[in-house]
């Protein structure tokens, strides 16, 4: 990304059977900031803005739904989060 650019990330689908319990965790907010974040059931959308040159990791947690334990219902467990590294250049 270049300084000032925005990137949108999306995760999940109706078939993923889980939820996104919180906003993105950004390792270095002086490089990338979260502009907006929205989760509804199994879908997540977040917008990031590049603030300064550098590198930051972005992680959005995901909790698998109870239907992942079929045929027996069980307590939801952590699933695979969205994870990526953003490099911002001038």
Number of strands: 8
State the domain count. Answer: 1
**Helix-strand category:** mainly beta
Series of H and E elements = EEEEEEEE
Quaternary class: single chain
Strand order of the largest sheet: 1-5-4
Count of discrete alpha- or pi-helical segments spanning 4 or more residues: 0
Please state roughly what percent of the residues sit in beta strands, choosing from under 5%, 5-15%, 15-25%, 25-35%, 35-45% or over 45%.
over 45%
- What is the averaged pLDDT score? 82
End-to-end separation in angstroms reads: 9 Å
Which regions have little confidence, pLDDT < 50, spanning 5+ residues? Answer: none
How large, in whole angstroms, is the Cα Rg? 15 Å
Helix percent reads under 10%
Describe the largest sheet: 3 strands, antiparallel
Approximate shape = elongated
